[in-house]
Predict the 3D structure of the following.
Amino acid sequence: MDIEIAAKALKELGHPIRLSIYKRLVKAGQPGMAVGKLQEELKIPNSTLSHHIASLASAQLLSQTRDGRTLYCQAEYEHFEALIEFLQAECCADQM
Amino acid sequence: MDIEIAAKALKELGHPIRLSIYKRLVKAGQPGMAVGKLQEELKIPNSTLSHHIASLASAQLLSQTRDGRTLYCQAEYEHFEALIEFLQAECCADQM
DNA sequence: ACTATATTTCCAGAACTATCGAAATATAGT
DNA sequence: ACTATATTTCGATAGTTCTGGAAATATAGT
């Protein structure tokens, strides 16, 4: 992971709604969570939610898979893990 | 750390210049680094740099101390550490 | 083909962020 | 007081992000 990619991921996580979405998706684990279920929990308009989901996807923080009419979102956990590793390697006092 | 504060810190780190500043400050350790030295390394106009420093300070990611005409910036490492801990507690698959 | 459900894309306005030259402020030395 | 150095604040512009209603798309069932 380079600094541009790390900054992009941090930026997309740096919004309370998106951070909540991501957090919720990690809790949901591998099967992920339907967009509609997220909307129900977060109580925000569908278009707003959809934009935030697209932002997270643009940073490879989540992916979507369709099952019939329902789209499931999954946390792309490896990418997040790589971000944490980048931060610990580049910005951790302990490592130096 | 709550989710609003975590999002704020992530947001401010989510810009390539600010992430570079922060990274550089962590490397500089306790004595920190003069604004002028940062400018020399990053080669950006002083006003632009000053705004980015203020953004990081607004998220408690750095503090400044003056020595004569020189202002030193120090990474507020505890706050960053708390952020990483928040992310690992709230968004880590391993913990669940 | 029609209707219903799930979700995205389009559109637009308001709010915010980034950038940087120029002016202002702070401090030090003479 | 004056000059030089270090840094911030002002002011303005351009660009980006956030928000959400309405329209469009995708799929399923009848």
